[in-house]
Amino acid sequence: MSFKDSWKSLLLMLVVFAAAFYMPLSSERFQSGVTESLHLLQEYAREHVILCLLPALFIAGGLAVFLKKEAVMKYLGPRAKKVVAYGVASVSGSILAVCSCTVLPLFAGIYKMGAGLGPASAFLYAGPAINVLAIILSARVLGIEIGVARAVGAVVFSVVIGLLMHLIYRREEQERSAGFQFTEGDDSQPLVQRVIIFASLVGLLIFANWGSPETATGLWHGVWSMKWVISTVFAVLIGTASVLWLGVKAWKIVLVAAVAAGASLLDAGALAAFGLGVAAFAWALATSEGEGSRWVEETWGFAKLILPLLFVGVIVAGALLGRPGREGWIPSEWVEAAVGGNSIGANLFASVAGAFMYFATLTEIPIVQGLLGAGMGRGPALALLLAGPALSLPNMLVIRTVLGTKKTITFVSLVVLMATISGVLFGMIPLEVQL
Amino acid sequence: MRIQVLGTGCPKCKKMEEMARRTAESLNLDCTIEKVSSINDIVAMGVMSTPALAVDGVVVLAGRLPDETELREILSR
């Protein structure tokens, strides 16, 4: 046995040993951190997984299958109109990008063989920040205002950053080699069908998560009392669409409906009915041919990629920061002092910290949730969400190999600057409106 | 023949390399398998969604993992 091969495992063992040996079990703060972590985990499991995360994963998986990358990249090619290129670059991240390993090759491609530095920078910035999963979960966990601000902020500022990058380096725009070629995929399914499928999915997601309003009258309450009826209509639409267009056998969908209806008739609760319905639907898709089974495959791929990371993220965030109103291992005063209020310093600190820290997909959400609960201002929270997922130290190193050191530094500074500014602005908006 | 696996190091790319090795072995192919992980090289081959697979310099698959039978078919051509 050689030391060279096993030093890593040895080091890991030593770290675990030391942690176990010195664990301050009797400290009250330590205990409360552990309890908080478990509480937060349970909160996610009960509140967010079935109704929000499951449908969101299906939406992400569906987008990956039904929307061909080629169709989007067409607008980011070398001869694309500039206005179109910026627009598409800033919103296409929501469709194309779920983790940085998909963003970077696309970014490099747009830069070197496509529409150039400006649109490429816009895409790089917007991509991770506005992917569907992140927006849906932000809105659900952190509140609709932050969710919307995150999406809008990312789109607007990506265009600004792209334009600035283009202006700063306009003299250096090199002649790019031949444009990229994409093999045209079989694009047989009409657009209308896809729109109907996605609209139903999004509808189901929104109405199943419709929160109970504070007053017992009015439109919001009306929608809330009807939420399961409306959700069921969307679910039926999805089922019908998958029989008609995705080649799923009708009897399987009937079985799915029977499972969901049975669960709700037996009074198993809406969560159980919804969860079982989704599971049965996944089975129906998986056992069919063609696009249906690819849909489940992609969804499963996302689930395998994201859920373990989110699990760890929630546990760590809970232990360090606690749930809102309670303390974890990190004292609230520290958070309050660093990122409380809405000062420029607090926003800048949140942006810089977010830019260098590595957030695995979606883990930024429990972390920001914990920080908000511990006294972080709304502005710095948005700044962190805008600077965080778009950049990290390892990510910067890869960008550097594509752009070179100078442009990378400019890009990072612009992101930090923009995130700070949007944080300050967002923190100044008085938000009295409660949906 | 020369098989190239293109990927920056994401889980799917590693899976692709493993699958390519296994399939090439079971088909008794006379080939070299190499990993292209520099993002510049990947883009230079015209690939923007990883994992991707190239045979003798021609990209045959990009953006997703093939299943076992599909990969066999591609490699035995």
Can you describe this structure?
The complex is a heterodimer of chains A (435) and B (77). Chain A has 435 residues and is mainly α. Chain A is built from 20 helices and no strands. Chain A is 75% helix and 0% strand. Chain B is α+β, with helices and mostly antiparallel strands and 77 residues long. Chain B has a four-stranded mixed β-sheet with strand order 2-1-3-4. In chain B, α1 crosses α3. Chains A and B meet through α5 and α19 of A and α1 and α2 of B.
Give a topology summary.
The complex is a heterodimer of chains A (435) and B (77).
Chain A lengths: L2 H20 L5 H39 L2 H5 L8 H15 L3 H14 L3 H13 L2 H11 L1 H25 L22 H18 L9 H8 L1 H19 L4 H16 L4 H17 L4 H31 L10 H8 L4 H13 L7 H10 L4 H10 L5 H11 L1 H24 L7
Helix pairs in contact in A: 2-7, 2-9, 2-13, 2-14, 4-6, 4-8, 5-6, 6-8, 7-8, 7-17, 8-18, 8-20, 9-11, 11-12, 12-13, 13-14, 14-17, 16-18, 16-20, 17-18, 18-20, 19-20
Chain B lengths: L1 E5 L4 H16 L5 E5 L2 H6 L7 E4 L2 E5 L5 H9 L1
Parallel strand pairs in B: 1-2
Antiparallel strand pairs in B: 1-3, 3-4
Helix pairs in contact in B: 1-3
Q: Any key phrases for this structure?
A:
heterodimer, A: 435 residues, mainly alpha, 20 helices, B: 77 residues, alpha+beta, four-stranded mixed β-sheet, 40% helix, 25% strand
